[in-house]
Amino acid sequence: MLHRYFLQLSYNGTRYHGWQVQPNAVSVQETIEKALSTLLREPVSVVGAGRTDTGVHASYFILHFDLQKPVAAGYDLVYKLNSYLPNDIAVQKCWPVSGEAHARFSATSRTYHYFITTEKDPFSNETAYRYTLPLDVDKMNEAAQMLFNYEDFTSFSRLHTDVKTNNCKIYRAEWKREGARLVFVVKADRFLRNMVRAIVGTLLEVGKGKLSVAEFCAIIERQDRGAAGASAPAHGLFLVDIEYPEAIIHSKM
Amino acid sequence: MLHRYFLQLSYNGTRYHGWQVQPNAVSVQETIEKALSTLLREPVSVVGAGRTDTGVHASYFILHFDLQKPVAAGYDLVYKLNSYLPNDIAVQKCWPVSGEAHARFSATSRTYHYFITTEKDPFSNETAYRYTLPLDVDKMNEAAQMLFNYEDFTSFSRLHTDVKTNNCKIYRAEWKREGARLVFVVKADRFLRNMVRAIVGTLLEVGKGKLSVAEFCAIIERQDRGAAGASAPAHGLFLVDIEYPEAIIHSKM
């Protein structure tokens, strides 16, 4: 019988070629698998809640892994794992779950934040996209509200072989001002590859006055990736929350 | 007649060998002088409000410079200067002042923040000192209050030839909790070289239970740098405010 564990972590994506293991490039997944395998003295594979792209950050991320023999998944394990991991990946929590709990398929929602700094800021070069020209944030919010009217977001996806549908349920989509920052908060049951960055890039076209709200809707309706604006840069994007049914979040112990 | 200007800026000190120009090392001062000289087409020397050490940051910094010919010190100058400067130095404002205004000698107070992160945080490796073991913050605050009883801070200074006295007036000194962060806020009329980091390092000894509050006072009274604790690391320190008399802060125009 295998023993399954959930692990909560955060990472600064700057130095990584995204979450997923790739040949000839360092990924977050690979870095964590190496640390876990060394610490637990058995080869460990991990399954992440999602696949962030190169340069994208996560202030909240969940993965699962299975072990042949159970371990005490408490403070000690977290502390040791952090000492094996580099400074830009931090583990907050590890706990046992039932064998049916799946980091990716059991998740019921994901929330992303996209940060734009409207002033030059020496402290957010890796964590916010700098855009200092005027933006009509009201219009950007008006367009963002239109996302609730649609389910098929093919126009905001990258061609992707392993998904069966391009349907997503949007639960939240809004721009907020926080001092010299703009934050786009978006929550959905699932996101297609590249979807948040494509939405942000297209909403920025609305903010610049290059697209009307009606044109934004028309882009979604066309269900064609070529129709949308350019993707916003990766370094402004943070995965900030993932929800699971209560029964899974709680330890089985 | 020379025309004097104040410039407000912020910088991430990670890549710099401090504020002051040094042989064989890149300083913030030198980087700004080069940008100003190129932009204004005359050799420009700048005088900073203080001299931050290697790796120390400033979210608020003031310098002055003199020009042979007056310039329009408005939004355009700031915008162009920012485009000449690297990402880790940002200019917010430039304005003309009278010839008596001096960035360093006219300043009536400086405020520093020292950030400690009590958890591993992938996003503050350059901007907070990580210390995850328990600290008695109440005791650290009790000791910090003792700073108000003294004026001679030789024990917290580095040997320094160009200052006449080691006396400083402390206006504020307290530790605050902000989530997983501890912030030491300290304000004084002036600070000696290395003083904030030496105070923080010694207060950390109090927090770890290695020094009592009475021993902290005895260290100050000894007026001997060898008596204090090790300096806290540079990357947790931010210069955050500098005050000037109203007549100087306001533009002479």
Automatic annotation (TrEMBL), chains A, B:
Binding site for substrate: Y112
Any matching Pfam family: PseudoU_synth_1
MF GO annotations: RNA binding; tRNA pseudouridine(38-40) synthase activity
Record's catalysed reaction(s): uridine(38/39/40) in tRNA = pseudouridine(38/39/40) in tRNA
Active site: D53 (nucleophile)
Domain spans labelled Pseudouridine synthase I TruA alpha/beta: 10-105, 143-245
GO biological process entries: tRNA pseudouridine synthesis
Stored SUPFAM superfamilies: Pseudouridine synthase
Protein function: Formation of pseudouridine at positions 38, 39 and 40 in the anticodon stem and loop of transfer RNAs.
NCBIfam families, alphabetized: hisT_truA (TIGR00071)
Quaternary structure (record): Homodimer.
HAMAP family, per database record: TruA
UniProt key word tRNA processing: yes
InterPro entries: PsdUridine_synth_cat_dom_sf, PsdUridine_synth_TruA, PsdUridine_synth_TruA_a/b_dom, PsdUridine_synth_TruA_C, TruA/RsuA/RluB/E/F_N
Enzyme Commission (EC) number: 5.4.99.12
Keywords: Isomerase, tRNA processing
Protein name: tRNA pseudouridine synthase A
Broad class of enzyme this protein falls into: isomerase
Family: Belongs to the tRNA pseudouridine synthase TruA family.
Gene: truA
